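[User] Could I get a sequence and structure tokens?

[Assistant]
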Amino acid sequence: MRPLAVNPASLPAPSGYSHGTLAGTTLHLGGQTALDADMKIVPGGIVEQFRQAFGNVLTTLRTAGGVPEDLVSITIYLTDIPDYQAHGREIGKVWRELAGPVYPAMAGIGCTALWQPEALIEILGVAVIPDDRLVTPIQN
């Protein structure tokens, strides 16, 4: 089976990329910044940007039938690691609110900039979704 794009209708329509790519039962979750439905980065700092970016990742995961427990890897790109660390407890609380007490393999990587200049964070991941929950997207 060839890889299939997973593009939730509730996220901004992608142009030149996919929100996710399903290969068998493995879902590669494309990098998500804190873009809202209006294609604007949410205000409020790193905690609110984490909430939006991770929420976008989970939206793509759920579109393919996945749940947070299916995440096997998360990579977080940050423009300001000390800011993220200073808000670690709040970010952890948001994680548990959105995903529960499940923590996959994770990496936090510092970078000088992201695609949108006001973005502080970008999150991507990989999930393995069991066959009995897998939703295969219809391709046009």
About this structure: The first strand starts at residue 4 and ends at 6.
